[in-house]
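Open question from group meeting: does this chain pack into something compact, or does most of it stay loose? Before anyone orders reagents, we agreed to write out a predicted structure and look at it together. Recording both the input and the output here so the notebook holds the full record.
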Amino acid sequence: MRQSPGRGPRLDVSDTGAVYAWVQIGGVEVGFHPADDERNPRGGSPVVYWGVDDVDQVRERLLAAGCERHRGPLTIDPGRRIAQLRDPFGTVIGIEGP
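Structure tokens returned:
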């Protein structure tokens, strides 16, 4: 993947041409990527990721509370993992951390 240098919005472009763009302001990161019918069906809500100290521990707590596995956990970068769960109302929740 290529990442744009410098400040401002950043881009990752995969070999297939898929683009992930994001901007970070303060401690908040907002990212955008193409819709993926398999992982994030069209018409669903945006996925908000919550920063957590332990992805596995929080994931297990959410599963025990009634959420269902949706995607992951996946390693995005060294030390950065994500997982997505679907709450009882169908909303996809993202968690991110080590």
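Observations to bring back to the group:
Residues 2 and 36 are 21 Å apart (CA to CA).
Residues 44-98 form a domain with the 2,3-Dihydroxybiphenyl 1,2-Dioxygenase; domain 1 fold (CATH 3.10.180.10).
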